[in-house]
Amino acid sequence: MQLLGILISLLAGGLLALLCDRYASAAASRWVSLASLLLATLLWLPLWPQATANASVWLVHTDAIWMQRFGIHILLATDAIGSILIGLTLLLGYIALLSAWGEIKHRVGLFYLNLLFTLAGVIGVFSAMDLFLFFVFWEVMLVPMFLIISIWGHENRRYAALKFFIYTQASSLLMLAAMLTLVLLHYQQTGLLTFSWFELTQTQTDGTVGWWLMLGFYVAFLVKLPGIPVHNWLPDAHTQAPTPGSILLAGILLKTGAYGLLRFVFPLFPEAAAGFAPVAITLGVISVLYAAKLAFAQTDLKRLIAYTSISHMGFVSLGIFAWNSISLQGTMMQMIAHGLSSAALFAIAGLLQQRLHSRDLQQMGGLWQLAPKLSAFTMLFSLAALGLPGLGNFVGEFVVLLGSFQAYPWATAVAALGMILAPVYALLILQKGFFGPPSELVKAGVADLSARELLMLGILAAGLVILGFWPNLILDLSTTPIQHLLASGG
Amino acid sequence: MQLLWLIPALPLLGFIILVFTKGQLPREQARLVGVGSVALAAAITLLVASDFYAQSDAQSSFTLVLWEWMSAGDFRAGFNLYLDGLSLSMLFVITGVGTLIHWYASGYMWDDPDYSRFFAYMNLFVAAMLMLVLADNLVLLFLGWEGVGVCSFLLIGFWYQDPVNGYAARKAFIVTRAGDTAFAIGLFLLFKELGSLHIQELLQLAPAQFTVGANTPTLIAALLLGGAVGKSAQLPLQTWLPDAMAGPTPVSALIHAATMVTAGVYLIARCHNIFLQAPDILLLVALIGLVTLLMAGFSALNQNDIKRVLAYSTMSQIGYMFFALGVGAWSESIFHLFTHALFKALLFMTAGSIILALHHEQDIRAMGGLRKQLPVPFWCFLIGTACLVALPPTSGFVSKEAILNASWQLPVYGPWLWAGGVFGACLTALYSFRLIFMVFGGASTCQPDEPKGWQFHPPLLILAVLSLLGGLLVLPAAGVLPTSPAGHAPLWAEVIAIGLPLAGIALAYQIYGRGQWQHLRQAPRLSHWFEHGWGFDSLYQRLLVQPLLTLANINKSDLIDQLPIQLTLVSSRLFAIFSRMQNGQLRIYVASMTAAAIFIIALTVTL
Questions:
Q1: Which of A221, A359, B35, B136 could, after both became Cys, cross-link B102 (CB 3.0–4.6 A)?
Q2: What's the total number of domains in chain B?
Q3: Which ipTM was obtained for this model?
Q4: Which residues are registered as beta bridge partners of A76?
């Protein structure tokens, strides 16, 4: 029941925040959002997986009938993978809230409604084990994010929001079609009409049909991940979204794509996915290098960070499709670490935009002198992005590469070249923005971090350092469910 | 022994204190933290060393298990420290020389507004370097390896306001990162083949599982070598080191002479059993060392910046260490690493004193006659140079003679390699004494203002004494490493090896000692080419940097983005066309309907 509680707390909190803004004050709606997030966190805490207790993979399992005729249930269940990702979602919820606290000034209540609904949608995605319910949540997280970009975004927000919507919507249509076909296929084979993941993974999906169905799911998740060649919505969406939107997009929405690949593509279509792996891995490797190359050509800071996200998600593609326990555990680590580091970088881009009213790196420079704390944090997160050992991202990348090298040595070796390109763009941020003499724009005065901003960046920095030195906190937890997935995914 | 963890932890703690006080600490306290943490680490190193010597023979080792760092599937990497003769030798260098350099730096950097930030980076560097040599597995070693790289980046670009420094810093990081990537791929391959990344296990497994000279060990050794040449500024990844001199001089002494740049040598020595399975690569190591030491020697001869001369000489001396590893003189190589750390730190710090005395003048053509004006730096520099040139009986002599002697023993190629090494020694003498004569000889041209006091002279003098006498020490590394080829070179060869450097000095005196160098007729093209590091920079610029930049600029806005853009364009065009048909004019509707009907009827009739 905890999962349902978390969802209800977030959804109700969102509505309440809207009402508070209308009938009380903007501040009240902020505190209400914080309270509902706190409540959700309290409900989640008992779900923190225990590394030792491997009696059952599923930490919680709630099943209620929703539409009897179609075999659709409200089936919420989560293993350690889902639970860790829900934890990340809640954590970044706080970060987004802290960032919105100072940035969002108009229609505050509506904003928090959208923010909390997005979180609820994402948590639903991470816990729904009924495919129809999963699809519903998949859509639930899309709409509020669309509104966040198109109402509170920057100068070109309509275009970006529409692009985001069309890409995601078109690809999820493919998923819906594939899903319904799969359910019918299962019905033909067993006479049982169900959307339950537990049942559908038993479906015989070899042959051409399986291939097409697998592709339907794959495309939807690849768009979300995003991977080359369907990544184009991301740079625009990120650049135009307000900072809390970017934090949620990069930090957790992208992870739903990875989660989908992990949870659905392999377990539902083991043969087809294994056969498709070389193609997916090639696309992943291209993503790593191509996006890294694009990143260092950018002058818009947010756009630059957006491309680094695509590059890092290429490693996730690689890790998932290599499909062995090392690469998958590395993928989990990569997802969490990237969630923290990309959220931090977008938060910093937002802080700079608030101060300088610009995202243009060409106009920055010499920030170190005026804002040393902000600069030191930027340095830490840039170093995380380039994969410095001692910070979480290194563990993710290293373990992913180590695992996928066992299966695909050549592709992995090529992907490892991303290690050379990463410092090129990461150090470019530092050089153009923070080193050198202060630019005209910077000379006008830049405030260093406030206490709230310090807290926000401090949490993320601490998280990355902890993951860098004690990665087993995550790696160990993911062992059991990944063994389980490997067993079910052939 | 149980205190081993404190050795890297103390400098790390120093870093943390300096970071969290955000530069608010008064200078005196920052100095106490910055220098004190490293000095304490040195003291604990001595404690640990006395323990080590007391309870063990030469080949024993000690592992301190801290915590399990990462584990996934069959892969395990612990956060464990490993101490044996080799890592202990490195500890001596890092904490000992490190303390002296920190001590000196506390005076050198006194006037810098970012005093505390400087020591934060320096302490972090020491901590990372200590992790590098104490790691019991290659992943943890990689942590130190990348950590020192980042600190090197931060310290080269320490004076960040000047974009030139920033460029040099990024260049250093990215060029070495290219090597690091090869290193990482090497680790993946090692794990695939041997199923472990624990160093001692690998050293056991490698001889058991590999056949000597087979493809796999050769490839692994080549990849590890890639990492080593990047970090140690050897061919073909050497271009970053001269530019790295943009950092403050104590940084050059610590990172770019005594410790970090020798990490490649340490790596190869540490993985000796893997390299022994790949004799081709060992020969390549020797050749890379030889070619680098000669090329760097010629470049050093044509530099006019005192620090760049020393940078090329460092490159050249590390070339000797690689050379030694390649010819199988493992412990000699580590011994040369040790003596080089002493005398090169001495040379850099003395150069720093000279630079400060001359108000940041680094061009040796503007110096001259400083012998009388700066007596202490003069004698220190002379001692350092005597070691560098390997004049008997300095420490440099002991270590370099041992290397040359071992190279002679190598079958087939031995004498040839030996000849190259000896020629390099002659070259070393030439460029070193060129420096001495140009800086200290001749008439005085400037008014130096020497920094004195307890932060300047004592560390220099201690290092000078150590450099002179260091040859008498015996490092505990020998017990861990394979034994070197036995035997001696013939007497005439020894005589040549000692005599040629002397000839080099004489030649330097002829050319530079008598103030004749201004009138020297040189081949300008050739010397320009040597001065600029044999054109490697411009080659890489044209071959790699420019194409990449061009590619990046052409495709700045992502060609793939054209796909949705064109799709929107096409659909809006189509929309325009079709919407024109719906114009509400009945005549046109009727006309087009009739036309279509006729067309369809015609089609059915004809078909």
A1: B35
A2: 3
A3: 0.91
A4: A62, A128
